[in-house]
């Protein structure tokens, strides 16, 4: 195995790196100083573009391009918003960044603010991560005390305030426009796009919303150069990224891998193989919203945006959910159907009512009232949800189901048969 | 309505945003920290404090799952049962809790100490099964024994008058 590359996780093993003094001893705020004193704001964006960094929240949009959409001549204030509403099932990497290296996120926010001409950055943290918000608040207070936040940062005339903001427990607020509504003190309903946040975001002002890991990667890119970062990955998917692996592996956890790394190595080497020596059955490679893939596909796929697309799935948020031969794909999918039904914001009918109906169908199959034609009904219903609501939550409901039915039809048939058998057996016999 | 410290915190929060309504979610957290849930009077108070209508507060309280619209036990045990947790036995943890406490999920023990809830993904998938007490740091890699030890710990805390709304 090659020497592991450490970009985002470079300080994860440094003890007590939540403290600013420790952070400063490990290249802390070096990139911010370089950006403020040696680079023009446009040069910072150019460097990020060169890095081929793509958003680590799920959609994988090129970060530098996102930044370049913010109009330079707008008289309105501009905002940087960090999406720390990590709630995609299977994903727990942003948490690692904030718990182990919070200053890297603050530094990333400040560099982004400098590049965009913003003077306020909000870090929107999911409500459940209460203690992580406390930890971030302490780190931010330290940064203010050392003159890295607030006015005249590092003796320059650049000013930027950084604040944390708690969510209230709503998965949909990870969608960037729902997040902005939530930050404005409203329900987390996604907005109709366009206008995109870069033009009309927070308070109808130009806004960039970036994921935690994305922003925490920026200081390294500024310190060592965009080209250096890109070369760590593939041509279109630059650099390294964090993946969080859970489920039936011996060593679940957060790992940093270069883009293009083989999934097989991730499972066998980093994660120590499948638990109990069992056989791999299926993998959801990018958080629960992406289509499931079979063991055979998983062992042949590379972890980059392009390679995963070839097997019909996506890299998404980097949440890798591993299932061994003991897993029942009908049951694991049923649980996701419940999740998406629960988390639908309720605005669009196909997602709200479709999710409810979908759960009813799964429910009756599991308790024995399913009909053979229910499998076709699921497919038909899925077609009437997918692509028919304002945001991608409806799609996220449908993709895991249709892919699971296509790749593991025997599990769905077994659920139907098992249910019928349950019904035939008299109660109490 | 709220302690002077929390009132001061609201004043500080209001300096962070150009629009007062933006402070709504963090202010609701302060209310819930103090009372354990958010009642109608609190909603009206928050509305006045932020210069918005009570309905604007109510629609937010009812949208976000973490704001309690009715009282819960002093220790709200929230067990994640989404797929990654399910794969490694979260349902057994819920059953064990129900058996030990003598209440079903969604209910509170008669002594008012514990509420058991099943919640959606908490972002602790690599350290599952897990639960969260109120809004504290997660309790991870659970086993039935660890759950028993946790219940003892919380009972002792409850008897000494402390609470988990830290």
Structural key phrases:
heterodimer; A: 429 residues; alpha/beta; five-stranded mixed beta sheet; four-stranded parallel beta sheet; globular; B: 166 residues; mainly alpha; 7 helices; 9% strand
Describe the structure concisely.
The complex is a heterodimer of chains A (429) and B (166). By secondary structure, chain A is of the alpha/beta class.
Major β-sheet profile of chain A:
5 strands, mixed
Shape verdict of chain B: elongated
Sheet having the most strands of chain B: 3 strands, mixed
Shape of chain A: globular
Explain the overall architecture.
Chain A has a five-stranded mixed sheet with strand order 6-5-11-8-9, with helices on both faces. Helices cover 45% and strands 13% of the residues of chain A. The model of chain A has no long low-confidence stretch (mean pLDDT 95). Chain A is globular. Chain A has helices at residues 20-25, 30-38, 41-50, 63-68, 93-100, 102-116, 130-145, 176-183, 212-224, 226-230, 263-270, 295-300, 305-310, 329-343, 349-367, 374-385, 393-407, 409-424; strands at residues 79-84, 120-125, 161-166, 207-211, 240-247, 253-258, 261-262, 280-284, 293-294, 302-303, 319-324. Chain A is built from 18 helices and eleven strands. Chain B is mainly alpha-helical. Chain B has helices at residues 4-14, 24-35, 40-50, 54-63, 83-87, 90-101, 144-159, and strands at 75-80, 114-119, 131-133. Chain B is elongated and about 50 Å long.
Summarize the SSE layout with pairings.
The complex is a heterodimer of chains A (429) and B (166).
Chain A: H1 20-25, H2 30-38, H3 41-50, H4 63-68, E1 79-84, H5 93-100, H6 102-116, E2 120-125, H7 130-145, E3 161-166, H8 176-183, E4 207-211, H9 212-224, H10 226-230, E5 240-247, E6 253-258, E7 261-262, H11 263-270, E8 280-284, E9 293-294, H12 295-300, E10 302-303, H13 305-310, E11 319-324, H14 329-343, H15 349-367, H16 374-385, H17 393-407, H18 409-424
Helix pairs in contact in A: 2-6, 2-9, 3-6, 5-6, 6-9, 14-15, 14-17, 15-16, 15-17, 15-18, 16-17, 17-18
Chain B: H1 4-14, H2 24-35, H3 40-50, H4 54-63, E1 75-80, H5 83-87, H6 90-101, E2 114-119, E3 131-133, H7 144-159
Helix pairs in contact in B: 2-3, 3-4
